[in-house]
Amino acid sequence: MFRTILRFRLLVILALVGVVIYGFYSFKKLPIDAFPDPTPVQVNIYTEAPGLSAEEVETLITIPVESVMNGLKDVVLVRSVSIPALSYVSVYFKEGTDIYFARRLVMEKLPDAKERVPAGFSPVMGPNATGLGNALLYVLHDTSGKYSNKELKSIFQQWLARPLIMSVGGVEEIVQFGPELAYLIVPDFDKFVAYGITLEEFLEALERNNLLVGGGFFQSAEGDLVVRGLGRVYSTEDILRIPVKVDEGRGISVYVKDVARVIEGEVPNRRGAFTMDGREVQGNVVVKRIYENTKEVVDKVKEKLKEIQNILPEGVKIEHLYDQAYITEKAVATIQKALFSGMLLVAIVTAFLLGNFRASLIVISSLPITLLTAFIVMKNTGMSGNLMTLGGLAIGIGMFVDSSVVIVENIYRHLSERREGFKFSIVLDSVREVWRPVFFAVLIIVIVFSPIFVFESIEGKYFKPLAFTLIIALLSSMLIAFTFIPVLSYYFLKPGKTTYSAVMRFIHRVYGRVLDASFKVRVPLLAGVVVAFLGSLFLLTRIGTEFAPELEEGSVIVNAFLDPNVSIEEAKRLAMAIEKEALKFPDVVRTFSTVGRAEKGEVVDVNFIETWIILKPQEEWKSFRTREEFNQILRERLSWLPASIGFTQPIKMAIDHLLSGVRADIAIKIFGQDPEVLNQIATKVKEITEKVPGAVDVQKEIQAGRLQLRVYPRWETLERYGITAEEVLNVIKYALGGNDIGVLQKDTYLFPIVISLPEEFRGNVERLKEIPIFERDGKILTFGDVADIKVEPGLFVIRRENNIRYALVMTDVEGRDIGSFVSELQERIQKETELPKGYFITYGGQFENQQRAMKRLSVAVPVSIFLIFVLLYLSFNSVRDALIVILNVPFAVIGGIVALYISGFNLSVPSAIGFIAIFGIATLNGVVLVSYIRDLLAEGLDIRSAVKKASILRIRPILITAITTFIGLIPLLVISDIGSEVQKPLATVVVGGIFTSTLLTLVILPSVYELVYRRFARAERRRE
Amino acid sequence: MRYLIFALIFLSAPLWGDRYGGHQEREHREKDKMEIHLKEENIRDLGIKVQRVERKPSGKLIKMPAEVRENPSLTFAIYSPAEGIIRRLFVKEGDLVRKGQKLAEIFSPEIAQLVGEIEMARVKTETARRIFERDKELYQQKVIQYTRFFTSKTEYERSKGELKALMERLKSFGEVEGYHLVIRSPAKGYVVDQRVKPGDSVGPDRKLFEVHYHQVLWVYGWSGVSSSNSIKKGTQGKVITSLGEVSCSIDYIGHKVDPKTRRIPVRCIAENKGHILKPGMFVNLEVFTGGETAVVIPKRAVQDIEGKKVVFVRTDDGFEAREIHIEKEIDGYVVVEEGLKEGERIAVSGTVFLKTKLVGVEEGGHHH
After folding, report:
1. Interchain proximity B355–A563, CB inside 8 Å
2. Could you tell me how many CB contacts below 8 A there are between chain A and chain B?
3. Model ipTM?
4. How far is CA A32 from each of CA A321, A329, A382, rounded to the nearest angstrom?
5. Residues with Cβ < 8 Å from A376, sequence gap 6 or more?
6. What pLDDT digit, counting tens, does each position of A865-882 carry?
7. Chain A touched by B10 (CB under 8 Å)
8. A506-538 confidence digits (pLDDT tens)
């Protein structure tokens, strides 16, 4: 095979050029993302239910919808939230289910669900987006003072910006905040009484007098005329002119204008608002469709925003506030920086160690080719360039040169030693000599990384791409070492004067002495290593655990829960107060808040505020050094707020929310049936949680205490007058619920017409009771006649998971690792609470992934090590030698653990992957050394000389492998830009691990090998 | 690296030592649960408005729809007492007339006939008188018998009676000039509701006009059943129209619910100053049911905390939560029985925030 490659070397060079060009093209076209999107396959179903309380939403809508969805194929979990006026059901499908298939399944069942909920409510599927779908936020605001937020939303956003942005490919939905322009009819109920009009008649008149009818064609002399019945209203005057009733007794006609006012206002009962830097603006969230590339969508939307700005009237500004691409760019740039500086460092070190300019140039050239090949594979498998995939390349950079180093070094050595031979055959022989060990080494690394592929859920989505790209690049590096490198060496490599550089010779000298010494103090040395190993195991218990380090996103979100009974105006004030407090820091660029929900937004009410604080780049911070410190100061400054607050970051919040359904590090869910009991347990749990060290921002979700205006129909009265409850509720729907009674057309825009109660009726039960609603048997019936109206506290939110209600306590953890926090918390809660039968507690959050990942690894890693052992055994045909190599592995972790401990990082999934990498490197080092010792022994050398000679001869490849890997990771360690956080623990472990593993391989392994060999020899002799 | 950062945070701790102060404050708060500490600036940010507590009449303003009606005892319908045809009209609708002012002249064939009959009766009486006088002389001279004298006497008496009867009848039609009936206004007032023109045939079954003196009108209001109880006879009310306001005095509260409106009719007598009120107008009637002077505060100043009614009294460094007892509730206001003094300043908006400061977010409004 290698002969063929070398013979058709020109073709190989051409192929190389092709690979480089295509690789470069792939790199440029590679979609860029911040993260692999960890969203599970999930379909959300919303049902708007104006006027229903949380309990009613649960029984009338959520439960029927759940019961329909429960039976779907591949459904693993059904979660729901019922709040006043909104039901939200999330259906989670088995991992790997095609999202469009899942949506179709849900779609098929929706009519079924609709049949089971009361008439008038229709469950709809949520946007086809992921939890990380909120790609971009923008606002419309007016600087001229001419336009109100209502106009900004209903005219400029709704009819101008929205259609244009929706037309951008990949935009699934735009969630719009702000008041909506509406025409409000304010009835004067005193006039109703005077004219003997009822609300029912009034509503009917409005409904009947606002129609548009198409009448087909009318044949006439002028041709066929289109018949249009234009009954639609076009202005407030049109509404005022609508006749309500003819009063035959008095002989007068009553019009709307006689009994009501019509004003331009906003749709009542708004449940959300958007504020920016202390004032209310019209805010929007662009939601991207699932699987779309964030950066592409964001770039296109930004382009569109500029276009829209041009057609907006003067003074109206459309402003881009935040997008996820920002962090994508930052993170990817960071990783790229690490990648390229790693490449450079590796190149320098290789040149130094090889001591031959041409040789090192050839080796180094293999690096970009490897990366480009990896990009080709990534692009063609539909992967994106993100923190994880590029991170995989960055951490492996040192390993990718290994194959080439071995090949080039061997060719170079042979060329230098056999000057008289044909170059062709020298190169061929050299490659043939080492291709097996190289292949073997790569195989070992691949096997060592394979446990990562057993990850599932989020850890799988995050770290599988990392392992995948790493392995792909490793395999390509091997391929390149077998194909391009021999050809390049054939063309460019020249024999050197000496095989070893001055540096190398010096190293040999020193190492020889160290080795001699090591044989003398073998026992204390071995004991020392064992002690160090045990010590490091002890250290490991002192290291905290977490899923993955937090990404520094450059912005902070303050979550605030207020009393469930606050009004939107009050909530806005509070949001602005938070913004004001944050803006006092010179390090804050801008703040904005979402209050409550927009039309299709999240399942929250106006008592929930999310304040976004966008910070300057980290280098420019003056008032604080870390985000945690900023959080701490701000938390103190906000302590006066009448709210329960928490801190997070935009993407972290989205991911936390995806995982546990809440926006905090840890969600404690108390399952059971009786809301009252759940509430009591939750209160207790909250108290316990607050006492656990490390707990910050402990929040218990507000479940009850929402005051409700309850309307109980008086059945006897209804029966007596033949009124149906539907008729009563219909009136409530329009009069109190704020449903559209019609639309008003202005130009081509449609605006809702809504009934709005006069000021003095709002919240005044006595007045409400006086409203005349029906006329039956010549008698007028008032609201109070047909229903009992009471103000009572009720439930605020009802959460369910797999059909069981639960209460929620949330907490963030600061200054402590999540893993130990959770276990302490669990222990304390178990000890200090007694749960009634049928009640249980679960814990959710990112730590779950950590635990699950570690569990998987604890099985998969030993399996992979066993596999390696089998491989070694097959190759050495000796259990002894295979065992010695494997024994090298545990000792290698010493450095990793120590490095982790010193650096203060937690044992996270990335650091675990670091340990996996060390296993691979340590094994490789062992293999390189042991196989050479065996060769020398086979040549007939005695054990001591064989061990010594092998060690000295193999120190170069071992050092090169170790140092390149080490050096390649240095940039990841030093860079502190956004995006480097995730790979840092990994790099730390590998750097520490390589240090000890290499040291041990070089100093301890020879001694151990000799010792074991002698024992075996003695045993054999005795047997003989 | 991390260590360095932690070390820096630790070293800089004194710079933001505030943190510990915060802890103390929290402890303090727990000790004295009814105190809320807030800075002036924060109070402003939260939109909490403070108002002085005042004593004022604890009455209630009742608003109701009403209709202006004429006072029936001050309305005069004008009819022609006899069948006839209008010859002349001296006034038109809207004119203000004096009492006794001539309104119309009506030619009535009935009157004409009556006048003719009277003439006839007069002649007849004259004839009867002469016959009687002659017969009287003849009887005194014993020329004729008593029987004959008596007959002519009776005849004369009868004629006289007939004439008198006819005269009386004519008189009953009122003023008559010649063959014409003259219609005069019975009172000062406005001519309203003119239904006729000259030449129209009229009679006792056809109204000519009405004369109404609009100085005093009745305003009928429809009060909600619940509030009608607090309205008393003699209570002063106010009639609100688009033209202005007129005061009135309640003189009647209905005894039963009007089935058509499901409300209680209330009558208020209004002096129609400036002639603002017009009968038939739809107006609003406001009645202020004066109550005793008491501490009255807006309802939104009161929060419900664990079943207790609480208001927030401004102190030097924030607010103090104070339980109050409420006597009654009227239309967005509450009358405080005890717990508040005049002159104290209480929060009247954003009180939900103060409640949260006191009991936290989670237990908001929850009864234990």
Report:
1. yes
2. 145
3. 0.77
4. 21, 8, 11
5. A19, A22, A23, A26
6. 888 888 888 888 888 888
7. no
8. 888 888 888 888 888 888 888 888 898 888 888
